[in-house]
Each structure stands twice: as C-alpha cells, then as structure tokens.
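Students often ask why inverse folding is considered easier than folding. One informal answer: many sequences map to the same fold, so there is more than one right answer. In these notes we will look at a single instance of the problem. The structure comes first.
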C-alpha cells in the first residue's frame, strides 16, 4: 500500500511539472524572433557539489562530500555522473562506516534543447560500505548495494551562470551484499527522494 501511495505522489508531481512547463512554454513562441538575437550562452554542462552529504554526516560525527557533472550528448539528452564518499558513526556498537558512491544517470528534457526546464531521468548507483571500530566485526560484514533510481524535476536559470534544480524521485534497492548497520541505512536513502540544489553552468 505504501508503494502505491509513493508511486501516486511521483506521478502527481510529474503531471504538475508537465502542466507548468507547457504553460510556461506557450508565450515563448510569440517572441521567439526577438529572443534569438539576445540569446545567452547555451547551458550544456553543469557542475555541482553535494554539501547536503557533508551536513548530514556532520550530524553523525563524520564527514562526507560528493560532486556531480552533467553533460549534454545531443539536444534534449544528457548524462550525469556522481561520485561521493563519507565516513560516519553508525551508532551501532561504536562502529564507523566508510562509503564510496558511484552513480550514472541518463536525462531527457522534452521541452528544452538545453539542460533547463522539465526533465525525467533514470540511473543506477553503486554504494560500497566498509566498517571499522574497536569490536570484533568480521570483514565479511563489508559489502555493497546496487540501486535503481527514477527522478523527475525542473531546472531554473539564475544569474551568474547558476541553475536551481528541484526534483522528486524514487530509489529501489536491486541487490546487496554484506550488512547494513545503524545510520548506514539512512545514508543509502532508499525510497522516496526529494530535494533542491544549485548547479553551475560551465
């Protein structure tokens, strides 16, 4: 039942964003000729850092940082790569966890030839989890998690080459090996995901 509710929320979000995008695109055709002469540099490459990861791990007596790069392949299509790492207290028998996350996404912008406006994307993530501490935990508890994620969002153009991104998605665990202790579960952040961020156009 919870999965149905989450799916409905994701669909509703996508419908609302689509409706807004269609409404926002309508007046542009009237002044297209005027805008062509004053067009800005195309937004075809975006860089951002995951400071939210840093904040979350500081609350868990740790540290973390991530970064991602999105590049356009052809108009309407792009790919995005993410790399992140963190060390934090699992709050499980004084063990700490060190992580490495690698992700790859494919994006589709149906209403824009740049990395702006409404988009949908799908990708997978690889999360390595390693534990260390003063106890007798076996190395066999170290492991990895493979996940599949779907997202829908909207990117707004801001001054100084900044892009504001708001998104909603759902992350599904595909396979796992090893154990997931304490706050390592929240690090994986499976289920409904939502957020906002700033990207820098390169």
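Output (designed amino acids):
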């Amino acid at each position: 039942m919870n999965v149905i509710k989450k799916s409905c929320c994701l669909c509703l979000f996508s419908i609302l964003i689509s409706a807004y995008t269609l409404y926002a695109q309508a007046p542009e055709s009237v002044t297209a000729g005027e805008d062509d002469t004053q067009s800005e540099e195309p937004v075809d490459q975006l860089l951002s850092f995951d400071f939210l990861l840093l904040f979350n791990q500081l609350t868990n007596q740790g540290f973390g940082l991530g970064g991602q790069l999105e590049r356009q392949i052809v108009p309407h299509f792009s790919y995005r790569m993410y790399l992140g790492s963190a060390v934090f207290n699992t709050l499980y028998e004084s063990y700490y966890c060190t992580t490495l996350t690698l992700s790859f996404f494919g994006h589709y912008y149906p209403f824009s030839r740049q990395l702006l406006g409404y988009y949908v994307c799908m990708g997978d993530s690889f999360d390595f989890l390693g534990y260390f501490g003063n106890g007798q935990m076996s190395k066999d508890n170290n492991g990895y998690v493979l996940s599949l994620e779907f997202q829908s969002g909207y990117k707004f153009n801001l001054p100084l080459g900044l892009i504001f991104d708001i998104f909603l998605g759902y992350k599904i665990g595909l396979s796992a090996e090893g154990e997931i202790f304490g706050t390592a579960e929240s690090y994986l952040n499976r289920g409904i995901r939502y957020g906002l961020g700033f990207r820098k156009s390169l």
